[in-house]
Amino acid sequence: MFKKILIANRGEIALRIIRTCHEMGIRTVAVYSTADRDSLHVRFADEAVCIGPPPSRESYLNIPNIISAAEITGVDAIHPGYGFLSENADFSRICSEYKLKFIGPSPEVIEAMGDKATAKETMRRAGVPVVPGSDGVVASLAQARQIASDIGFPVIIKATAGGGGKGMRIIQSAADLDRLWDMARNEAMAAFGNDGMYIEKYIQRPRHIEIQVVGDQYGTVSHLSERDCSIQRRHQKLVEESPSPVVNQELREKMGEAAVQGAQSVNYEGAGTIEFLVDEDGSFYFMEMNTRIQVEHPVTEEIFFFDLIKEQIKVAAGEKVSGRRYYPNLHDRFAMEVRINAEDPYNDFRPSPGRITAFHKPGGHGVRVDTHAYQDYVITPYYDSMIGKLIVSAFSREEVIQKMERALDEFVIEGIKTTIPFHKKLMRDDRFRRGEFTTRFLEEFDFRN
Question: Is this model's pTM higher than 0.70 or not?
Answer without folding.
Answer: yes
